[in-house]
Specification:
Elements: H1 2-25, H2 31-57, H3 74-99, E1 106-115, H4 116-120, E2 143-151, E3 165-168, H5 179-192, E4 196-199
Parallel strand pairs: 3-4
Antiparallel strand pairs: 1-2
Helix pairs in contact: 1-2, 1-3
Length: 200
């Protein structure tokens, strides 16, 4: 039971960190500052569960040996509460997302998933800072999802009828994924012939 609560707190704390870092990345900051934030991000993600483990989990009175949360100091209880709140919030957000119906203005949704490595005939692996992640089994680094949504929006000028917008998200030119991947995706984008391209 205690182990489960520790893991839940760790997952919730990770949700806090990821959410905060995503917000920070939306600001016009330099690469140097973003790199420092990334180091903090990784350190907090891995450091929090280790802190809980060695600070409260191990030992004769540790939580993993049958200790009680009520016997922890207020500081430790606060750290756990922070993680649990993040975990509950994440579950609530996911539940709300699943229960929220699509907008009435959307008249069509088509989702296509493809493995770019299969399409190319080889794995477009590069030599970036996260190269080791490519060796993890069943990772989806080279998988691409293309979602096509069609909307009928009231009050839109007639000149905008048929306007197509291509939204490209999370293009990480870190070197981990090699150039052929991006060339393939760019080729697909050109074939779509959108009126407007948005990068986020």
């Amino acid at each position: 039971m205690n182990l489960g609560l520790m893991l839940f707190a760790s997952a919730g704390f990770a949700a806090w960190v990821v959410t905060t870092v995503n917000r920070i990345h939306s600001q016009p900051l330099s690469n140097r500052i973003l790199h420092i934030i990334r180091v903090w991000h990784d350190s907090l993600i891995f450091g929090y569960p280790l802190l809980l483990l060695f600070g409260t989990g191990l030992g004769e009175k540790g939580l993993l040996a049958g200790g009680k949360f009520t016997e922890l100091s207020l500081l430790w209880q606060g750290l756990y509460a922070l993680g649990w709140i993040g975990g509950v919030g994440t579950i609530g957000h996911a539940w709300a997302y699943l229960l929220t119906p699509p907008p009435r203005s959307r008249i069509r949704c088509e989702i296509r998933r493809m493995d770019v490595a299969n399409e190319l005939g080889f794995r477009p692996a590069g030599h970036g800072p996260y190269e080791s992640l490519l060796k993890i089994p069943y990772n989806e680094v080279f998988r691409l999802e293309v979602a096509t949504h069609e909307f009928a929006l009231p009050g839109v000028p007639e000149e905008w009828d048929g306007l197509s917008i291509l939204h490209l998200s999370d293009w990480h030119f870190s070197g981990t994924v090699a150039l052929p991947y991006f060339e393939y995706v760019t080729k697909l984008c050109r074939e779509m012939q959108p009126d407007l391209i948005v990068f986020t």
